[in-house]
Write a structure and sequence with these properties.
It is a single chain. The longest helix has 18 residues. The strands form 2 sheets. A 4-stranded mixed β-sheet has the order 1-4-5-6, sandwiched between helices. A two-stranded antiparallel ribbon has the order 2-3. With about 180 residues, the chain is an alpha+beta fold. It folds into 2 domains: about 120 residues, Trna Endonuclease, Chain: A, domain 1 (3-Layer(aba) Sandwich); about 45 residues, no CATH class. Helix 1 packs antiparallel against helix 6. Helix content is about 40%, strand content about 20%.
Length: about 180
């Protein structure tokens, strides 16, 4: 599975999670635009792939990676000291610069009360935000986006239950007395 597919899965998972107020894809990079073509940069170096906000107002940043693409802490420290690997000369490439900027942004967001993390798939989202089923049970009944999030969560998890609307019993609203 490539990074684009992983981003789509993580974004759907975040949008369906009851602790997330909103989440959206955030592009950074550059492109040649216009006639004659001129290179235009967009976004800020180090910005995460997905940005958003938790229901309590905290900032949310999620960097999506393919397993093995995110260097270890020891590697980051070696890069910051300007050391190469096994006595080879060190060269700070664009990829290394980008990874260092992403790591710095994740640390900055976490230090100032936000939530930023690396996700390889929905499992890391659930590890950071908790089980969405339990969070739905605890959410208030008057929550406006609850039905939408329940439908998104059901579609994302691919679950089919025996409930009245084709979902699990926990997804159904209590019947009025």
């Amino acid at each position: 599975m490539n990074e684009t597919d992983r981003q789509r899965d993580v974004l759907l998972c975040l949008q369906a999670h009851p602790m997330v107020a909103w989440a959206q894809r955030q592009n950074t990079g550059g492109a040649y635009l216009g006639d004659p073509p001129q290179y235009v940069k967009f976004g800020v170096e180090g910005d995460a792939d997905i940005t958003g906000q938790l229901r309590g107002g905290r900032r949310l940043e999620v960097e999506v990676k393919v397993p093995g693409e995110w260097p270890s802490e020891a590697t980051f420290e070696r890069w910051l000291r300007g050391e190469g690997y096994q006595r080879r000369p060190f060269k700070l490439t664009d990829d290394k610069r980008r990874l260092i900027a992403q790591r710095a942004k994740i640390q900055l967001v976490n230090e100032h009360g936000g939530l930023a993390f690396i996700a390889y798939g929905p499992e890391e989202v659930y590890a950071e935000l908790g089980d969405p089923v339990e969070a739905l049970r605890a959410s208030p009944r008057g929550d406006r986006g609850r039905a939408f999030r329940q439908a998104m969560l059901q579609a994302h998890l691919g679950r089919r239950g025996s409930g009245r609307r084709g979902g699990h019993r926990w997804m159904e609203e209590p019947k009025p007395k």
